[in-house]
Write a structure and sequence with these properties.
heterodimer; A: about 675 residues; alpha/beta; Rossmann fold; FAD/NAD(P)-binding domain; Alpha-Beta Plaits; 5 domains; five-stranded parallel beta sheet; about 30% helix; elongated; B: about 150 residues; four-stranded parallel beta sheet; 5 helices; 4 strands
Chain lengths: ~675, ~150
């Protein structure tokens, strides 16, 4: 391989000065497909008159074996070093001819494919003269372009066989496990003290009403005990360097203040005098300053919350194994990885922004979010799975759920539909009605969106058991200042009736929004974000798991709102894509990259700004350098350069000019 | 200024060279699909393959017009679906700026345009082409050609 590379570099240098272009032009009849419209012989005759053309032929089927042999013979006999074939599209047989000349020892990028079938003969059947004239122009353009074509080498870049997964929610866990099962060492970084993410907070999963804790625990245990997965909790990304295949990542690990020999007995927590609302429980219960988020938490080691700790040292003294250690310090670890999977998840939208709903205000304690309701229903809740009003602890007689809180709402800036709120609201309404048949459950919706297998059935069965659906977005939640009763003001848009619904409890179906802290993470990763704030995928249909930068993949809700099944599927895809170059051991890349003429470069930095995959860096002197591995060959840097110093190989201004003059000549209107 | 009185049909007949910069992905794809489906269009359209419409700068567009092209257009992927990242949007902004320059110079702004197409649908490319002809014809009959300078 090394020898070949050397040879290629050598030829690249030589090609410009020493080698005279010798071009072979071949026009294909493609049966009657081309020859039926275009006078192929005339095109070949014209091509023969062009400078540097040593051979111009026409043949029935260029893609057939004799046709390809013609190409090879011309190289052997006439010393042709650039070929132009006027036939079908580049994607169809351009590859065939490029391969053929490569077999004869000529770089495949010296082949120029001219598409006279799709772009000419097939679409101009009725205007044969004009079609022939156009074909001549196209072939001349091809010849002009091929005259200055340069060799492009294909380089193998070895990759680091390890992966980094950011976020240990369901998507991150799935991706880590899949990667590790492929034999790739994984570094899993989680911001919180436990893994499992939002899924562990749920009470039941739709549509089968399964226990999410039971579904996820084989995965959390599997990840925690996997020999190839190194888990960092309480950690975050500090810096990321390098590019596709070879990243260098600094991970900052915050101290737990409890050593790994913790037996998880809980003596420290029960004796801790400090109590603060539990984040994991969405504020529905209290935790101590030294705590474990929930009973099944992994890692099971307790963690001390330094911010709220009063340093009474009770836990230090009471611990039977002396695991509590206040002197622990944050450490930074540098790891080398080949691929990065971002599975940072989502945050629940904070409805305090929507003033008429009074969420979080005094007197409106009974206005809660769906996540809080899930926590109340869950088996480990403070209310013992009962639904009790947070204000007075009574069982509510009427519950109103409000859909689309923070989604489909341009006033708060979120135009998108989260897509899962209808499903979980219907699920929770069903559970509530089952538990309390006397309680009125009402869902105020704009549109009920329950696509997919089993969801429509769930919707129907929920309607059948007596959950009331009202089409309309509530305008306000009002409170009687004397009695403290809540009323939801809504217009039923189907019957055009304004309604005032009595509500002992109001549940807001809050949207999924990008997770907190995504801004700094996004800028460290140098990936682009959609206008909603989620990380943008490479292509919405063809590659929804790759980010804007090669080697960085997206898994789960970081790319956009998703339910659990979609997140898992997305994460699996991300893992497979991230694993491919690591399992193979190298990335093969055609070096179709820009070169910078430093004599012309004025260090303005425009190319650095415009480069979407962030493939242009600066060196110590502030001069731009092209990262050949990260470059995607789009050529966007070219027009941004004020001095034309940056030029994409084989698409340079010079080469495009040659093609343009051949193509654009002869406009009658402007002549 | 003689062209200013020309009827539409006469101008349409004479339009015979429009340079299209098509991106390697959706642009080329849609033109290929149109070809496979034998969707006839005006032979005036000549396609130049570029990596991305974001690669086409004012230099290329002006060179083409200077060499005698009747009009220039860039055809890229649908907005938000650029295969590189946002080349089509950058190109769109660039062409908006160029249109302003044309207007300031006193020309019609229809000599340069940006379009999008979808690789799976040849109709999108052919529709773009028809639209180019239509806009150009109107522009020429109303304001004259680049050569006329009106």
């Amino acid at each position: 391989m090394a020898v070949k590379e050397e040879k290629m570099e050598k030829s690249e240098v030589e090609s410009e000065d020493s080698e005279e272009p010798r071009i072979g032009v071949f026009c294909c009849h493609c049966g009657h497909n081309i020859a039926g419209t275009v006078d192929v012989a005339q095109v070949a005759d014209y091509a023969r008159t062009l400078p540097n053309v040593v051979k111009a032929e026409h043949y029935m089927f260029m893609c057939s074996k004799p046709g390809v042999q013609m190409l090879k013979d011309s190289i052997k006999e006439l010393g042709v070093n650039r070929t132009v074939v006027a036939s079908c599209s580049k994607n169809q047989h351009g590859i065939t001819f490029a391969k053929a000349i490569a077999e004869e020892g000529i770089n495949k990028h010296r082949h120029q494919q001219v598409n006279v079938r799709e772009y000419c003969s097939w679409v101009h059947k009725k205007e044969q003269d004009k079609a022939t004239a156009k074909a001549i122009r196209l072939v001349e353009a091809g010849v002009n372009r091929s005259r200055k074509l340069e060799d492009v080498e294909t380089r193998r870049i070895p990759t680091t066989k390890a992966a980094l997964v950011i976020g240990a929610g369901i998507a991150g866990l799935r991706a880590s496990h899949d990667l590790a099962e492929l034999g790739i060492p994984v570094f899993l970084v989680e911001k919180n003290s436990t893994i499992g993410g939002h899924m562990t907070q749920m009470n039941k999963t739709f549509p089968t009403l399964e226990c999410p804790q039971c579904s996820i625990s084989p995965l959390t245990n599997g990840v925690a005990n996997h020999p190839l997965i190194e888990l960092y909790t309480n950690a975050q990304i500090k810096a990321i360097g390098g590019s596709m295949g070879n990243f260098e990542v600094d991970i900052e690990i915050k101290p737990r203040y409890v050593k790994d020999n913790c037996t998880s007995c809980g003596d420290c927590s029960t004796n801790c005098p400090v109590e603060v609302p539990s984040e994991w429980d969405s504020g529905m219960s209290m935790r101590n300053a030294i705590y474990k988020a929930y009973p099944q938490a992994i890692p099971a080691t307790f963690v001390r919350d330094k911010k709220n700790c009063i340093e009474c040292n009770t836990c230090v003294n009471i611990c039977p194994v002396q695991a509590v250690d206040f002197s622990m310090e944050a450490e930074t670890k540098t790891v080398k990885v080949g691929s990065i999977v971002v599975a940072a998840g989502y945050s629940e939208y904070d409805p305090t922004e929507i003033e008429p709903y009074h969420y979080g205000q005094e007197g409106y304690e009974d206005v809660i979010t769906q996540l809080k309701l899930e926590r109340m229903l869950s088996p480990t809740s403070l209310t013992n799975s009962q639904i009790l009003r947070p204000s007075d602890g009574k069982i509510p007689k009427s519950i109103v759920m409000i859909q689309c809180v923070g989604s489909r709402n341009e006033q708060v800036g979120n135009k998108y539909c989260t897509g899962v709120c209808c499903k979980f609201a219907i699920k929770n309404a069903h559970i509530l009605k089952d538990m309390y048949p006397d309680t009125d459950v009402t869902i105020c919706y704009i549109d009920v969106r329950t696509p997919g297998l089993n969801f429509e059935e769930m919707y129907q069965s929920t309607q059948e058991i007596g959950v009331r659906f009202i089409r309309g977005r509530p305008s306000e939640i009002t409170r009687n200042p004397l009695t403290g009763e809540l009323k939801v003001i809504v217009e039923d848009t189907l019957t055009m009736t304004p309604l005032q619904l009595d509500a002992d409890m109001v549940v807001l179906s809050a949207a999924m929004v990008p997770p907190e802290g995504i801004g700094p993470l996004g800028s460290k990763l140098k990936v682009l974000r959609s206008k909603e704030g989620f990380l943008k995928e490479f292509h919405i249909k063809m590659n929804p798991t790759l980010s804007s930068k090669g080697g960085i993949f997206l898994a789960g809700t970081i790319q956009g709102p998703k339910d659990i099944s979609e997140s898992v599927a997305h994460a699996g895809s991300a893992a497979a894509l991230a694993a491919a170059p690591l399992v193979r051991g190298y990335i093969e890349k055609e070096m179709l990259v820009p070169t910078i003429d430093y004599d012309l470069c004025v260090n303005c930095g425009m190319c650095i700004t415009i480069c979407a995959p962030a493939a242009i860096d600066t060196d110590e002197d502030g001069k731009p350098i092209v990262n050949k591995v990260a470059c995607r060959s789009c050529g966007m840097c070219m027009p941004s350069c004020p001095t034309a110093a940056i030029q994409l190989i084989n698409f340079t201004d010079d080469q495009l000019y040659d093609e343009i003059i051949a193509v654009s000549g002869g406009g009658a209107v402007c002549e | 200024m003689s062209d200013c009185e020309t009827p539409d049909e006469y101008v349409k007949e004479r339009i015979n060279n429009i340079v299209i910069f098509m991106c390697n992905e959706c642009g080329q794809g849609s033109a290929n699909t149109a070809g496979v489906a034998r969707m006839a269009y005006n032979p005036a359209f000549r396609i130049i393959r570029v990596q991305c419409t974001g690669q086409v700068g004012p230099i290329q567009i002006m060179e083409a017009l200077n060499n005698g092209a009747d009009a220039v257009a860039c055809v890229g992927c649908c907005l938000g679906a650029c295969h590189f990242f946002n080349g089509n949007i950058i190109s769109m902004h660039r062409i908006k700026l160029m249109k302003k320059v044309f207007k300031e110079l006193g020309y019609s702004d229809q000599f340069v345009n940006q379009y999008t197409s979808r690789a799976a649908e040849g109709e999108t490319a052919v529709g773009d082409f028809e639209n180019i002809i239509e806009r150009l014809t109107t522009a020429i009959t109303e304001k004259g050609t680049l050569k006329d300078g009106c």
